[in-house]
Amino acid sequence: MTVTESKAPATAYVGTGLPTCQELLDHYPAKFTWQELKAFVNSGDLGMLKRDKMLQLRYNDWSEEIKKKWGTIENYLLKYRLRWGQPDRLSVLKPYKGNINEIPILDDPDSLPTPAVDYFRVDTPPHLISVIVNDWPYSGTSVPPEVEHSVVWTRQPIFHPAIILPSISERIEAHGLWDFTGLTSPPPSPSSLPASLPALAEWGVPSDYTVSRVRGTPEVEELVKRAGTGVHDFVRSKWPEDEWETAWFVNPPRLQSVRGLAHIHVFAKRKSGEERRDAILH
Predict the structure, then answer these.
(1) How confident is the model over 241-280, as pLDDT tens digits?
(2) pLDDT exceeding 70 applies to what percent of the chain?
(3) Whether the Cβ atoms of residue 153 and residue 82 lie closer than 8 Å to each other
(4) Which residue has the higher pLDDT, 278 or 89?
(5) Contacts of 147 (CB under 8 A, 6+ apart)
């Protein structure tokens, strides 16, 4: 199945620094379909989500230069890339198109009141949130170009003892959190994963790969779902379900590239006119 028309994929470095939309389309074509992406997320093995190999090498070089200038990637994000409570005006890719509650730019955002709840949820104040396009999307353009890959950064923790109870802490540590919003049909079952594995052949994932995640008891699964409620409600508020379908996830700590700053990955696909009409009718 052809995902998108493009020039020959890169077999060596193509350019340096942040990739542009045209570079992604020309040299790092999408390798996952929207259906495959949902299958990978719903499998619970978030390590399956990969970045184009050549783009990964380009990212590695870029990150080394960033560390020379800023010390750490976290410093770069906090002191330059993220604009708390403001639209993403620094991206060289497509801007985030969901809802945003913009607040005035403040000289000292830390002077704003601290929220009563000390973990991330739907009513976390905008000055503690930055929604940006992923400058280095998975699988080049991630999936077909109509799918956006945004990252929600927050100065509040997502994994917090108040919601990550001891009975599920090991499960969260191993697999993180994920869910879907606004889907027009149920997400692919983990049992359907073998059909999507060929898309991962480039990364050495064998066709007989099996996911190690074991589903917990109904009580454990309910606690896990409850732990993700704040993220789920936030995604629904920013990508309204009558307009978007999304797959969101929070990587487990072992897969997080910036562990000192909580963040949520959101893949969002705008619904067609027919899908929006069906959503209104139902």
Answers:
(1) 999 999 999 988 777 777 778 999 999 999 988 877 776 6
(2) 82
(3) yes
(4) 89
(5) 34, 37, 267, 268, 269
Single-letter amino acid code for the residue at 135 = D
Asked if 222 and 72 touch (Cβ cutoff 8 Å), the reply is no
Residues 6+ apart with CB under 8 A from 198: 207
> Quick one: pLDDT at residue 68?
96
Read off the amino acid at residue 118: D
Nearest partner of 127 among 158, 84, 83, judged by Cα: 84
For the chain, the C-alpha Rg in angstroms (whole number) is 19
pTM given for the model: 0.86
What DSSP element (H or E) covers 248? strand 244-250
Percent of the chain with pLDDT strictly greater than 90? 38
From first CA to last CA, the distance across the chain in angstroms is 31
Which H, E and C letters describe 74-141, residue by residue?
A: HHHHHHHHCCCCCCCCCCCCCCCCCCCCCCCCCCCHHHCCCCCCCCCCCCCCHHHEEEEECCCCCCCC
Among candidate residues 27, 30, 4, the one with its CA nearest the CA of residue 149: 30
Type of residue at 240: P
Of 59, 148, 152, 134, nearest to 92 (Cα)? 134
Long-range residue pairs from 95-99, CB within 8 A, at least 24 positions apart, any chain: 95/133, 96/131, 96/132, 96/133, 96/148, 96/150, 97/148, 97/270, 98/131, 98/150, 98/238, 98/239, 98/240, 98/244, 98/268, 99/237, 99/238, 99/239, 99/240
CA distance 24 to 32: 14
